[in-house]
Amino acid sequence: MTTSFLPPADLARHLDRHRLAGAVATPREANLRNIQGFLDGDQHQHMGVVRTRDWTYDEVFALMRDRVGISPDRSHVEGQDTISAELAVAALERYARVLGEVVAAGGRVLFATGHPAGLFPVYAQLARVARRAGAHVVRVPDGFAFEDGDVRQIEHVVMVEQYGGLRHTHFPGPMSLTLEKLRRDGQNPPDLVVADHGLAGAAGSHGLRTIAIADCNDPGVFVAEAQGQVEVAVPLDDNLPPRLYDPVTAFVLHRAGLEDFV
What we know:
The chain is α/β, with parallel strands linked by helices and 262 residues long. The protein contains nine helices and eleven strands. The chain has helices at residues 8-17, 28-40, 57-67, 85-104, 120-132, 173-184, 197-205, 219-226, 246-255, and strands spanning 22-27, 80-83, 108-112, 136-137, 144-146, 149-154, 157-162, 165-167, 192-196, 210-214, 232-235. Strands 3, 4, 5, 6, 7, 8, 9, 10 and 11 form a nine-stranded mixed sheet that branches. The protein has a two-stranded antiparallel ribbon with strand order 1-2. The radius of gyration is 17 Å and the shape is globular. Pfam families: Phosphatase.
């Protein structure tokens, strides 16, 4: 069943009602801890982002306040934190505009996720529609090794497999390996990467046009956006049941001018 387009105010209410934004499940402690983890180069938090300047804790906190909508109260150090639905919808408008532009030009688009339990169905639908509309959705050759598993593409979305299941990952390695595999196979680089986590950070750091979804505990992706490496970072809870993202997908396709290809 196709989900109907919701106008911006209605979509914002949906995001708040289902905690994709508003009072999200991600705790304040994780948000603050991950800011420091990003600055320290923690393997799970640097997300492949090459810093183009030195960032302070206060600067990253202010960035997350202004671009994501975390609580501005510096004395609030534990409990609930927030994402602004209005900031999320505004970012989705930009996200859709970029996607629509590249698809209309017949560009090469690569989809990848580190959140297969939440965002995989979103990207799979975007990929199907992009193909019908004339984009070249990049095909990645059969799976290749990454740590104890492999990188593989399912429904045109690149993900990591491990021990027989699809793996949640923050690591940039899968994207770097994918881009190298494409290069070795003689394929041109993508004109656009649609991704999240370290897959988005790595793509942006490789100089590729990139749009991303990122949670309020993913400061690296928003730093990459501020540095001009990621063109759009949409603040949303990135790991909820996939059906809750259906209105988000419908909104993006409508704003991208692609709903006739659904």
